[in-house]
Amino acid sequence: MVKQSTRILIADDEEEFRFMLKYFLETAGYDIDLVSDGVQAINMLQTKAFDIALLDIKMPKVNGVDVLKFIKENLQNIDVVMLTGVGDIRIAIDCMKSGAYEFLTKPYSATELHRTIKKIIEKQTLLRENQLIKAELLRIAGSTEIIGSSPNFKKVLDISLKIAPTESTILIQGASGTGKELVASFIYKNSDRADKPFVALNCASIPDTLIESELFGHERGAFTDARSMKQGLVELAGNGTLFLDEIGDISPLIQPKLLRFIQSGEFRRVGGNAVLKSDVRIISATNKDLVEEVKQGRFREDLLYRLNVITIEMPTLKERKEDIPRLVEFFLTKKLKMKVRKQLSPAAMEVLIKYDWPGNVRELENMIERAAILSRDDLIQPYDLSLPLRSSNLLQNLEQSGLIGSHVPIKDVEKTHIEGVLKSLQNNKAEAAKILGISLKTLYTKIQQYQIKVE
Ligand SMILES: Nc1ncnc2c1ncn2[C@@H]1O[C@H](COP(=O)(O)OP(=O)(O)OP(=O)(O)O)[C@@H](O)[C@H]1O
Ligand SMILES: [Mg+2]
Fold first, then answer.
1. In angstroms, rounded to a whole number, what is the distance separating the alpha carbons of residues 25 and 4?
2. pTM above 0.85, yes or no
């Protein structure tokens, strides 16, 4: 079937010939534009998008060869077919060398022309699909930027860049939410395999019974549900990269099979006899201490030594607090794609910097997302951040500061505290009352009583 929107430019100085072509190709469902010389062709090419150009070689002013050059230099997506008289075959062959897709010698049949056009359309469709697949693979591999310039995180980036182009197996170890998956895709994108597939398997989320067939595939009838042959991820990844997430949770039953595969590059599909090969590079990640897992007998030592040829230790967010402001900015501006740009008040930023972040970057990201959606103003305030145990955490800080128990009257403490809260909220009394746990009326009374200045 003809793709309706294929746009073809025909440049030919013989009027009759042009109109005949136009008639024929329009009837076949293409979108046609006609020009009668090379100058018009170049002008037209600059004002309208085309998929294919049919160029006569001999034309007045600028000939077809020069139009071809213009297209190859400026409009690489257009495929060019040269239309040539018998005497110009030598030139036509040169045109092929300069990038023309095909040449047709006049007189050619309509069928011949149509076949060439269909071949081009097929090629262009494939190319587009390939680009789509590539884009999709990139998306799956995570297209997000990596933020971090603190010394602790720079170490991670430096080692990642150094080992990316090697073939080494890599283990990324770190607490939950520290960015292990992001670093894995960062390594992949900077590796020599960046144009090959990146496939990920979360070993914790797949039942033991299925993990082998996920990894290595199965033959038809290998088990009750195996109605057709299925390729496993090591096969699909080909000579790409396989990311084994949560490797610490992989079943002891699979561990020897995985070990054998890493050692030899060979595997069998479940229920199959043929020995297959795959040259996949393995990056794995875990939040478990695998040395401890080995000691406990839950993880094979020989597998660990195969996986951790190079180990990357992810710092916790607490160990790289310098990165918090830029991470917040990144989440607010780039990642959340909110219609209204929101910002963090200095007081809110201070709260974030003081917090310990047990859930690391993921917790920060979630908190910023929630605050950005829920905050009424464009400036996010401390009370918009639903920090767990926020007040008790602060109280703990206060206690540690030694200020609690100083010899001051309670009313002075109360006055200073109310002043501080009001200031941090730009004197928003309703919010201040909420945070102080008193009614708005009581707050007004206290403002008067202590003669607190609020505009
Ligand atoms: N340095 C960073 N820059 C930008 N975003 C980051 C960074 N580190 C982590 N993130 C974001 O934080 C979230 C958690 O990261 P990721 O999934 O890579 O962590 P993880 O260590 O694999 O976590 P888990 O152990 O829970 O699987 C993701 O949305 C990721 O994009
Ligand atoms: Mg992860």
1. 11
2. no
Compute how many other C-beta atoms are within 10 angstroms of the C-beta atom of residue 90. Answer: 9
With H, G, I as helix, E, B as strand and everything else as coil, classify residue 120. helix
CA dist 19 and 106 (Å) reads: 15
Q: Helix 38-47 to helix 64-74 angle, to the nearest 10 degrees?
A: 20
Round to whole Å and give the CA distance between 408 and 402.
Answer: 13
Distance 188 CA to ligand 2 centre (A): 15
Which superfamily, per CATH, for 151-313? P-loop containing nucleotide triphosphate hydrolases (3.40.50.300)
Q: Domain 317-403, what architecture?
A: Orthogonal Bundle (1.10)
Sketch the domain layout of the chain as residue ranges.
Answer: 7-136, 151-313, 317-403, 407-455
What integer pLDDT is reported at residue 36 of this predicted model? 94
Q: Which residues of the chain fall below pLDDT 50?
A: 1-4, 389
Each residue of 225-244: pLDDT tens digit?
Answer: 666 777 889 988 888 999 99
Task: Give pLDDT tens digits for 384-394.
Answer: 887 764 555 66
- Say which CATH topology domain 407-455 has: Arc Repressor Mutant, subunit A (1.10.10)
Give 176 Cα–ligand 2 centroid separation in angstroms.
7
Instruction: Identify the CATH homologous superfamily for domain 7-136.
Output: Response regulator (3.40.50.2300)
Question: Which of 157, 172, 181, 363 to probe ligand 1 with, by most ligand atoms within 8 A of CB?
Answer: 181
Q: With a 6 A CB cut-off, is 320 part of the ligand 1 pocket? A: no
The atom of ligand 1 lying closest to the CA of 148 is 1
